[in-house]
Design brief:
Blueprint (H helix, E strand, L loop, with lengths): L11 H6 L4 H9 L16 H15 L1
Amino acid sequence: MRLSYKHRHSVLLSKLTFHWVVEILSRGYRSTLELNDLGDLPEEESTVIQFDKFRRIYEHKK
């Protein structure tokens, strides 16, 4: 069973307390996590997209 990506849909309090990560921690506690256990990362959260955002902001602030 694959987990869904929860961080994007979490409320602020859940993000601040990392409550959104409890499901994966529980699963990892019960057994060793495999790559198949993890949900797919949304495209907008990929390193390529995030690095482009970072670079634009960095260049603007220089």
